[in-house]
Amino acid sequence: MPPWIAGQARNDKVSGFLKIEGLAKTFVPGKPVFDNVSFTLDQGEFVCIIGHSGCGKTTILNVLAGLDQASAGHVFMDGREVVGPGLERGVVFQSHALMPWLTVRKNIAFAVESRWPEWTRDAVKTHVEKFVAMVGLSGAIDKKPAQLSGGMKQRVGIARAFAIQPKMLLLDEPFGALDALTRGTIQDELMSIVRETHQTVFMITHDVDEAILLADRILLMSNGRETPSGYAPGGIAETVTNTLPRSRNRAGLHHLPGYYELRNHIVDFLVSRAKAGEDH
Ligand SMILES: Nc1ncnc2c1ncn2[C@@H]1O[C@H](COP(=O)(O)OP(=O)(O)OP(=O)(O)O)[C@@H](O)[C@H]1O
């Protein structure tokens, strides 16, 4: 067995900063989208989840965010059960959820003031400007969302989530709308920020290279499907531990020993196993 395969996620020991225990979600009775999803994240760990459309990635992320309820199972963060949204969890959605009547500055300041109500106006201003600069939007800081492109709005959403420095970042394809150059810059920023702050990150991506660059572990998720013996729900089929050096960067990724093996393993899963379900 290759060194990066850590075994079935459902056998992981249930300890750590974020614990997901026996999660299931059912919309159509008798045909849960996924069931028995259990995994843990340690503090400071970066975990990506990869799987085909419809397997339930966003549903899991929404449950972790406290925005949706599972049909079964529990989520614990720092020992407390997650029952609703909270400022200790920052979420970046595929669709940037900005307040259209507020400027970029005020959208982010609103979140920062909620997080640190005791801060002076100057402290908030400096903090907001730092994170707007990080996503390259200083020139648009006093514009409203309607005046920005889709990618720019997405960057505001990213800046807002990063600015409140939540213990846990939940990212649903946060870079999907960005051009390759901006995407690369923000990936680098994200990596250096979370390593510095020891934030824990759970991220959905469809981009195998992005997962290999950013993640310490990659969860491979299979789709629910009909089989000769009946319906089989989706779930976490496998947990892949990224054994490439943590100091990796985008430019050097392809040259690292083990990179192609790791990449091929994930692509093979997506191509031949994610829907066929030998592992689930
Ligand atoms: N409110 C709902 N009512 C009925 N079915 C739903 C509802 N929300 C999601 N689903 C179904 O649940 C499944 C999982 O959806 P989810 O959005 O979590 O998938 P995903 O893996 O994130 O997909 P994508 O990669 O396309 O974003 C899909 O088949 C979807 O059609």
Descriptive account of the structure:
The chain has 280 residues and is an alpha/beta fold. The protein folds into two domains: 1-85 and 168-179 and 206-280, Rossmann fold; 89-165, Helicase, Ruva Protein, domain 3, CATH 1.10.8. The protein is 32% helix and 22% strand. It has helices at 57-65, 104-115, 121-134, 150-163, 180-197, 208-214, 259-273; strands at residues 18-25, 34-41, 46-51, 72-77, 80-81, 89-92, 168-172, 200-204, 217-222, 225-227, 230-232, 235-241. It binds adenosine-5'-triphosphate. Adenosine-5'-triphosphate (ATP) binds at residues 27, 33, 51, 53-59.
> Can you write the helix and strand succession as a string?
EEEHEEEHHHEHEHEEEEH
Taking Cα atoms only, what radius of gyration do you get, to the nearest Å? 19 Å
How many domains is the backbone divided into? 2
Distance between the termini: 18 Å
With strands numbered from the N-terminus, the spatial order across the biggest sheet is 6-7-8-3-9-12
Keywords: ATP-binding, Cell membrane, Membrane, Nucleotide-binding, Transport
Pfam families: ABC_tran
Main location: membrane
Domain ABC transporter: 18-248
